[in-house]
Amino acid sequence: MAISFTPASGPLADLDLLRVEQADAVLHVRLNRPAKRNALNDTLVEQLQFAFTHLPAETRAVLLSGEGDHFSAGLDLSELQERNVAEAVVHSRSWHAAFEHIQFGRVPVVAVLHGAVVGGGLELAVAAHVRVAERSAFYGLPEGQRGIFVGGGGSARIPRLVGAARMADMMLTGRVYDADEGLRIGLTQYVVDDGEGFSKGLELARKIATNAPLSNFAVLHALPRIAEMGQAEGLFVESLMAAIASGDPAAKERIKAFLEGRAGKVSKA
Ligand code: 1HE
User: Fold this and answer.
1) Whose CA is closest to atom 18 on ligand 1?
2) Mutation test residue for ligand 1: of 31, 36, 37, 83, the one with most atoms within 8 Å of CB
3) Over the chain (269 residues), what is each successive 10-residue block's mean pLDDT?
4) Do residues 177 and 230 share a domain?
5) Residue 265 falls within a domain, yes or no?
6) Domain end among 209, 225, 248
7) CA distances (Å), 217 to each of 28, 194, 213, in order?
8) Residues 175 and 217 in one domain
9) Which of 29, 70, 104, 110 sees the fewest Cβ atoms within 10 Å?
């Protein structure tokens, strides 16, 4: 069945550096600055924060992608030249705030990656929960070569996916990973052929959108925190979260549906 997206209405329609469209419970947020390879300037980061804090009520999952040949070239280097040290700290914190709303927002985010996913573009991608890469995708952290450091949360999020040693190698040597390598080291969870990222991402986002909201909330908010805790604390918090989730009417209805043969079985592919 063809799924048709319609342009978002209300304030999301006014964002000039994002193209925002809705299809049922899935909101598609597309970086829309292809002439600059979706380089992230202040306005684009502000608009991302605005979009993720003004999700339409019906949204249960977000698809995040980039217009043009690349997902994102990272920080807009033309703005960097004009900042002093104090302004740079505030700037970095503004990225943290925006990306925090993506990682710890109301709904899961599936990023579809292609072409350059570099610097701040990679920092943005790793704030999402599921990453689908097209074969054209490549990942780099050219900050090392540009004489700067990551400032969009990369040093906190990327080592948690691939380890600090791999990130250090990327920054020190300029190493670039391709799509298959990115999958192998854990930067992404899926690789598909060029041109197929959107449909794969949409398929996943639609599945995610059918989950009980409280289950998705637990995965977004409890899982990463438990993973950072000591085992004893983690197990305790897990028990609380499990009890809260299983006490929700949505869980009771879903389990009843399975027991009555009305819900799907677990199966391969
Ligand atoms: C840009 C940027 C940018 C392109 N800031 N303007 N990021 C980088 O170091 C990556 C720099 N960019 C590249 O390596 C390449 O542009 C790409 C591999 C991404 C794409 O190559 P290509 O051949 O398709 O495009 P292009 O010809 O290099 O660029 C097209 C235009 O986009 C051109 O502008 P024009 O006015 O001459 O047409 C480029 O100047 C412009 N452009 N990338 C500004 N990044 C919170 S801290 C995060 C720190 C970082 O992210 S550092 C990494 C920065």
Assistant:
1) 116
2) 37
3) 87 96 97 98 98 97 98 94 90 97 98 98 98 98 94 98 98 98 98 98 98 96 97 98 94 92 90
4) no
5) no
6) 209
7) 19, 31, 6
8) no
9) 104
